[in-house]
Amino acid sequence: MQPRPYQQECVQKIKAGNTIVSLPTGAGKTLVAVLGIDFFLSRPGAKKVMFVVPTTVLVKQQAQYCRERCETRWSVAELSGTKMDAWTQQEWSRCLKDNVVLVGTPEVFRRALVDCGFIQVLDFSLIIFDECHNATGNSPMAGIMRDAVWKVASQRDCPRILGLTASFVNGALKNVEQKRKDLETLLQSSLFCPDVPEEFAAGGAAGSLSKEKFQTVKWLDDIPANCAELVSAKLTTLLDRFQAAYRMPVKDLKKTVNQTRHVFEELGMAAFCYALRDCIVPQLEAHAEALDAMGGSSQQKEVLKHQLPQLRRQMQEAADTLRADGQLTQTPSISGKAAALLQLLETLFQGEDGRGDFRGIVFVTQVALTMPLAHLLTEHFGKNYAVVRAGAVSGTQSMADAKRDQEMERFRKGELNVLICTSALEEGVDVSDCAFVIRFNRFSTTKSHIQGAGRARRSDAKIFYFDNDPHEEEGRAKLLAEVAKDNSLRLTEAERSERRQEATFAVPGVYPFYPSNAGTKAEVNLYNCLQMVYEYCAKTMGQSLNPEDLFTYDEKVICDYPRQVRKFITEVKYPSPDGFLKVTLEKVNGRWGDTKLETVLDPNRSKNMKQDDKDKRRFLYVVAIEMHERGLLDGNNQPSGKAVHGNKLACEAFTMNPGLRLSTASYGKPAPATPSPSPAPATPAAPAALLEENFKSRLNEWATKKWRQPAPELLKYDSETTSLGFVATVQLLKTGLEVKGTAHPKKKDAEQSAAAAALAILA
To answer: Which residue has the higher pLDDT, 741 or 450?
Structure first.
């Protein structure tokens, strides 16, 4: 593909020095990146290229683009997902040996560079930050720069930095000029914004509003506030009934109620009943059945046996009769807002006959709306207008990668022509013939306006706003573009270097801490020590834990009247082959000496930290250092062999508080249970949401007590990806027994399901 003149300008800037390329969406930023890759990899002594992208969806897209568009067919690796947490030095070394371009998410690279030292900044000739406006505060992108690249920024062989963005401000449009300078300092790069002809910008260039392109949708707000309050009260009562019957607390109950209420307020009673009946209720039933299978005494099981059908019936009746509730008769089945969306889609698809090349995206702000809205569209158009075929996708925390990839592929092929999605798809995802974008909810940033509109790639595409004013949003986008083009704001290389040095927080011999093992570049700092200690405890004990169980607190009266008390940490315990060890406040104070926390905390990274969070980091930083001194962490900040093999035998398991979390984002129903190879009871249905009851830990404990060996030598988990999500199998290596669980969006929940099924059989 022949680059356009403005793209050639960008490439020349990249060749000359570190550059942030600011181009409108659809103007070809990725081609600029590919041209940069070809240039730097063709030079003598070329190393590797790191391509950092913000989401898992973009990893696949940008990796494929590199394979197809690079002049040389470089080998390209895709690095994302929880599987990367298990990678060791061996896997990373093999990856670097076998591949030239590494495309991955920010946290994957940050952990490998900073926490573990598996790879080094100087292994690369070029580092690309796609959607680099995400490099703010304590984000993983920012961590890569501050904790890894900055340390070698003055060296001649430091890699070239390339940032790509269409909206360099990520957040409120305040102090825009200062935010530009902050981004240039962080990336040690100059921002370059060339002139781009309007026809090359998806959604039009910033400030080029036309009535034909952007339209506002008018809708009737017909959900009474008192009805929303009543729905919240009834759902709370329903969940309280479950908690009382099973003595199983619903964690974040208020959050669950508020999310489901949001479905009611935005979509109406029909979608609310769907969310309750088809998303919330099955999760409660599955948890109840799992608890039934895990029950202790025969008397308890008998009680549960009688309670479960009754509870199921009560919950189903509650979902089915809410619509007829006398207090809710004034509530519409479909809200005025949802009705306006249905009417809009009918108009858009009129005369299209369902052909695959006409499709569009509906953005919502909360994942709670995705499945209920997709269901509402399917119900409506399945009966009245069959050419509309809706699906839903969301981010990695609420949807399995395999399911998301499947839905995205169906959308690209035209099997789905309306995609309901969250902001996870705002950035960078390309569907070249996307004919319309609908913003169903209010968004709060100019970035969302620019990025969302950029998904409308067809020349005649239309963009519809339900809650925002497109004229106001275009005005803000125009201001952002003007600041990006103002070359008088550009920092010189010397100014960027000076600002970088002023923002470097280190006290020799105190902070940060570098493991003594030769050959590693890993470090311990205030931003990774929490995760490091928590993961050490979980990995070496083979179970989840409540981090608060590690801390002991005391109180100090800071004001007699009115009485005010401040809680503070007195000690932290952690597991070791010698039992639980303790780090006291006296030891922590001795390690820090005269160094105040404020002198080493970066204000940009800690501005959202509460005081108790800072106190924990100050403590756990010292805990991590002591773990190194005792040989419990290796040079890559990973648990050592003696910790992995010795901790579980020397320390009692952490006790987890029972509880469950619920979500209206329920993707797929549980798979049928696999028949047991023995005449034991059938495999129980596992929860569709996260199992807070740690069945893996209980199975580990059972196996360890029975055979007196570490659990990894007794149990083996295997997972497979199905159309319904992950399905895991646990094998008891001593007996050969294999038990399969049910399907779940997340791999860890699938393994919990398999462990629950195994325990039910062994009981």
So the answer is: 450
